[in-house]
């Protein structure tokens, strides 16, 4: 499975990245190399390997939930494509 330059441009647009033609070419090449590597990993025989074997016998450390006041709403909204007052404006996803 290969990624085209057009797909890279769409991904960059979704991520709100501006890529020039050279960067688009480099990103396309890099993404295709990553996908080629994943394809190679899919060829490895993992029949007798237990899933997440490195986690066996380990416990997840827990910590108490605590309320923390967040006073930097303006900074959080600074990168939002649309906002109103102290709220994010998001596209409707349910008709």
Q: What amount of the residues lies in strands? A: under 5%
Mean pLDDT level:
89
Which fold name is given in CATH as the topology of the domain at 1-44?
Histone, subunit A
Structural class: mainly alpha
Question: Count the strands?
Answer: 2
Top-tier CATH class of the domain at 1-44: Mainly Alpha
Please compute the radius of gyration using only Cα atoms: 21 Å
Q: What is the CATH superfamily classification of the domain at 1-44?
A: Glu-tRNAGln amidotransferase C subunit, N-terminal domain
- DSSP helical segment count: 3
In the predicted model, the low-confidence regions spanning at least 5 consecutive residues are: none
Shape: flat
Q: Could you give the order of the helices and strands?
A: HHHEE
CATH architecture of the domain at 1-44: Orthogonal Bundle
- Alpha carbon gap, first and last residue: 34 Å
What summary fits the major beta sheet?
Answer: 2 strands, antiparallel
Helix content: 40-55%
Adjacency order of strands in the biggest sheet:
1-2
Which helices and strands appear, and what pairs or packs with what?
Elements: H1 5-14, H2 21-42, H3 73-78, E1 83-84, E2 87-88
Antiparallel strand pairs: 1-2
List the main descriptive attributes of the protein structure presented here.
single chain; 95 residues; mainly alpha; Histone, subunit A; two-stranded antiparallel ribbon; 3 helices
């Amino acid at each position: 499975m290969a990624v085209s330059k057009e797909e890279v441009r769409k991904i960059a647009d979704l991520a709100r990245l501006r890529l020039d033609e050279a960067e688009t070419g480099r990103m396309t090449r890099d993404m295709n190399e990553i996908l080629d590597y994943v394809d190679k990993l899919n060829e490895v025989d993992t029949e007798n390997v237990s899933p997440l074997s490195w986690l066996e016998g380990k416990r997840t450390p827990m910590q108490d939930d605590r309320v923390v006041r967040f006073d930097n709403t303006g900074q959080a909204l600074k990168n939002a494509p649309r906002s109103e007052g102290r709220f994010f404006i998001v596209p409707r996803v349910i008709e």
